[in-house]
Structure formats: C-alpha cells, structure tokens
Amino acid sequence: MSTRYAAKFASFGSFAPAKILNNFDLEKIVDTTDEWIRSRTGMFERHITTAEEAASDLAYQAASRCIESSAVRYNEIELIICATISGDHAFPSTACILHKRFGFKNIPAFDVSAGCAGFIYALDIAKTFIESGAYSNILVVGVEVLTKITNWNDRNTCVLFGDGAGATVLSRANPRDISRIIDSVICADGSQGDILFQAAGGSRKPASHATVDANEHTVYMEGNKIYKNAIRSMYASSDEVLKRNNMSVEDVDWVIPHQANLRIIEGLADKMKVPMSKVIVNIEKYGNTSSATIPLAMDEALRMRKIRRGDIILLTSFGAGLTWGSILARY
Ligand code: UT7
Fold it and tell me: 7-172 has which fold?
C-alpha cells in the first residue's frame, strides 16, 4: 500500500498506582502460593488502584509524562485514542475524560476496545490516520484497571491482573527521520469471544443484584484455551509483518510482547527463535495490565536505555475478542 506520510513514535510515558500487592499478600486472600504464581506466570507483584483511583487518573499521569518528554506541545495534539476495557464508565469514553482533564479544545477523542491487544489496535489506527495525512500528532494511551472487575474469590484469575497505564505520541515523521513505524498487522477471531469476557453489565445482561451476587461483572477466563491461542497468534502476526517487509527475526533488536504470562513469552521467543536477551520482560513487577503492558514495558526499557533511537522493535499482543496483532518499527 503506498502511503503519503510515515508515522513515528515521538515519546513514551507510563504510570502505575502506588499501592502494591505481592504474591504473599495474595496467599492471604485465596488458596494460592507464591511458588505457584511465580512458576506458572512469572509474576511476583502488581500495582493496584485504591477505591478513589480510576482509569483516567492513571491515563492522565502516563499521558502527561509522555507529552512532557516529547518535543510535541500540548496544543499540537490533534486526536486522543485510548485503548481500554476498564474505563471510568461505559460512556463517555475515557479518551473524552482525558480530553477534559487536559483542557483540549476542538479535537476528537475515542476509545478502542480490543482487550489486551487494545494498544496494538490503537497504534494501527493512529498510524493509518498519520499515513493518510489526516493528523500529525496523536496521543495513544493504553490503560487498564482490571482489579476493579476482578473476582477476588477466583484464584484462576485474581492473581494475574494489575493496574497501569502507558502512552505514546505518534507523530508524522519528516523525510530525514530514521524513526518510523514500518508496518502493522491486526486480526480477530470473534468465534472465541466466550473464553474471556465480562458476562454482565452490558445490554445482553444488564447489571442487577443477581448478576453482582453471581460475580458476573468480573473477568471470566478459560486460561488454558487463551494460553493455546496466545503463542500461535502472536507468532503468526509477527511472522506476517516481518515477511511482508522482507525482514527476519535477526533484523529485530527488541521484541516487546504482551506481558500475560512469562511461559507464553518464553514460548513465543522459542518459536520465533529469538533469544530472551532480546525480549523485554517486566511481568514480575506489574502482572498483566492488559492494554497497558506494552507501553509500560516500552517506557521502562527506554528509561533504562535498553531500547535506543534507531533500534528495530517488534510489539505483539493478544487478548479478549479474540484479538491479536503486531507492530514493526524503527524506534
Ligand atoms: O492477557 C490475555 C488474557 N489472559 C491470559 O493470557 C492468560 C493465559 N493463560 C495463562 O496464563 C494460564 O493458563 C494461567 C496462568 C491462567 C493458568 O496456568 P495453567 O498452567 O494453564 O494452569 P491451569 O489452569 O491448567 O491449572 C492447573 C492447576 C489447577 O488445579 P488442578 O485442577 O490441576 O488440581 C488449578 O485449579 O492449578 C490450579 N490453580 C491454582 N493453584 C494455585 C489455578 N490457579 C491457581 C492459583 N494458585 N492461583
């Protein structure tokens, strides 16, 4: 596809709430052990929101840090896209709440719902807008507060999730820039939507005393089935995005995968034949923050000066929907 312009990552920022819940804290809540959680998931602690904190609070902090660290000024942001499935409200969008908090005027804002692949979907959309010439600077946020829709009696899910936010400004690259998003792939398989979903609270089953009593407003997940799809789908989209740009894994400096389970990450690295030394992992500190895992990991890796300007990076994720996708870029 011929495009008029190229998009590039201008900067990243992230934020995690102060409160931390570790595996030993979880041992006091459900029938689990630090050993089980570490060996099955690679997680040790996760940040969780207080009763007063909501998605837009985390998103605002991450987005502020992101914009402050870029050369883009607040009044140059032309669109906000927020990837989330745990926004402040069903409506208005969390992107619109951010719009208000930043005091933006006359720019559009909307949310993207694609589960843990939400940030990849939002980036794909933002990239396409920039390549079309419609916008020059887009704020893309991934934020999730899944601990507010977690069943704290279900050990299969409650040990997995943490809260957090990450943001990037996607800008039009000028012709001399080495940085640019090379390509992206997004995909879905709606036939498997029922293995990871929130049963009640929508129009299919509106919230009622009965749905709350039955915990149907919390995350339902068949972890094993998700696990089987995860490696296959991330591998497929990564392979596609590399092949159609005549690139191979040897060309990639860093893989930044969704942080859902260390065993999934290692399985993907093994299948891709990428050494783990090239894979960014921070799951032990944050757990699964859904659409926030990739921008959180990117921001940390940049601040640690692991990822540098000019490096080839591959971002890949999968999640509820089912959804998945990969982004190939020169940072
Ligand atoms: O971000 C996208 C969405 N989510 C995911 O990507 C999650 C993908 N799935 C996974 O990461 C893994 O499937 C889990 C971490 C969720 C589960 O790991 P698993 O190795 O697939 O375990 P399992 O579900 O097969 O359960 C094995 C055993 C079961 O006991 P029995 O039936 O063998 O006696 C579970 O009841 O582990 C038990 N178990 C636990 N034990 C201690 C499940 N959760 C726990 C727990 N502590 N927290």
Answer: Peroxisomal Thiolase; Chain A, domain 1 (3.40.47)
Residue from 31, 46, 156 to probe ligand 1 pocket by mutation (most atoms less than 8 Å from CB): 156
Tell me the two tokens of residue 294.
Answer: 């990739």
Q: What is the mean pLDDT of residues 184-212?
A: 96
d(CA 59, CA 64): 8
Known catalytic membership, residue 288: yes
Is 60 exceeded by the pLDDT of residue 245?
A: yes
**In the prediction, which pLDDT does 290 show?**
97
254 C-alpha vs ligand 1 centroid, how far in Å?
28
Assess whether pLDDT exceeds 80 at residue 146.
yes
- Residue 25, classed as helix, strand or coil, is helix
Q: Which two tokens stand for residue 216?
A: 């149907």
For the segment 238-254, the average pLDDT, to the nearest whole number, is 97
Pocket of ligand 1 (CB under 6 A): 32, 36-37, 40-41, 116, 155-156, 159, 196, 221, 223-224, 226-227, 230, 260-261, 288, 319
One DSSP character per residue, 228-268 reads: HHHHHHHHHHHHHHHHTTT--GGG-SEEEE--S-HHHHHHH
CATH 3.40.47.10 domain span(s) along the chain: 7-172, 180-330
Architecture, CATH, for domain 180-330: 3-Layer(aba) Sandwich (3.40)
